[in-house]
Design goal:
266 residues; two-stranded antiparallel sheet; 8 helices; mainly alpha; de novo design (two linked rop proteins); 4 strands
């Protein structure tokens, strides 16, 4: 027979194994510190520093994001806008470039977009405003719109382009939009005739410009208050429709009376 010595009274027995009490506590503390994600019986999980993190269900967990956040311009949508609008602009520019080339090699050539006295590409291509940089303006679109389409494809792949790139592209697009407004003014007040394929380019430039502004405001590239940011981002589609309405109204208000007067004399 053997007896427990008084010096071993601080030990405790687990089956056939005798583990000192102090050593058992040390093992428990080490287990807690090395297992920060192991849940305990109380339903609480030790934190990374040995603290206990509360696992009580969060009343706000699983809720939908605020409604404003769901209206953000997503990269996928933005990429498709750049790709599709760039393709439409390229078609209009390429057709005008071809018609301009055919006119150069054959002065008697009648452009396919010359439909009537008010819808005719000829006067626009023959004017000095049609070659502001010394060569036909459509060549600018033929060179620029494929770049826009390429950027759209890059965005669709999930790539994140730097801030300076987006600001540079927005600056170039703003200059191009200023050129479009000048050409619209020229068509309405100087030539008093509309170029059908020019209008295709106008229609493509509006969403290209506007959604770049929306993207820059949303991402914080352009300084804006939270109220302005939410106004622009949440109502981006409505505001684009307003831009189209203003453009169409401008054309009809200026060309409408002239067209009506012409039809009365026919």
């Amino acid at each position: 027979m053997w007896s427990i010595q008084p010096s071993l009274s601080h030990r405790r027995y687990r089956g056939r194994t005798c583990v000192p009490e102090v050593h058992a506590q040390t093992l428990q503390e080490r287990f807690v510190s090395e297992s920060p994600t192991r849940p305990s019986r109380t339903g609480r999980t030790p934190g990374p520093t040995g603290d206990v993190a509360d696992l009580t269900p969060d009343p706000g967990a699983g809720r939908r994001t605020p409604e404003g956040d769901t209206k953000d311009l997503t990269p996928r949508t933005f990429g498709w806008i750049l790709l599709v609008a760039g393709a439409v602009g390229l078609v209009g520019s390429a057709w005008l470039a071809i018609e301009r080339y055919l006119k150069l090699i054959d002065p008697d050539h009648v452009a396919a977009c010359s439909l009537n006295p008010f819808l005719d590409c000829g006067p626009a291509m023959a004017s000095w405003q049609g070659a502001l940089l010394g060569f036909p303006n459509p060549f600018l679109g033929v060179a620029a719109f494929p770049v826009v389409m390429t950027v759209g494809v890059v965005v669709l792949t999930g790539a994140r382009l730097p801030r300076w790139f987006w600001l540079t592209m927005l600056a170039v697009t703003t200059v191009a939009m200023g050129l479009i407004l000048f050409l619209v003014w020229t068509s309405l007040y100087a030539l008093v005739v509309l170029c059908p394929f020019c209008m295709v380019v106008w229609a493509a430039m509006l969403p290209l410009f506007w959604f770049q502004v929306v993207h820059a405001v949303q991402e914080g590239y352009l300084p804006a208050s939270e109220g302005v940011r939410r106004l622009v981002v949440d109502n981006k589609g409505t505001l684009l429709a307003v831009l189209y309405v203003l453009l169409v109204a401008w054309v009809f208000l200026e060309m409408g009376p002239t067209v009506v007067e012409y039809l009365q004399t026919v």
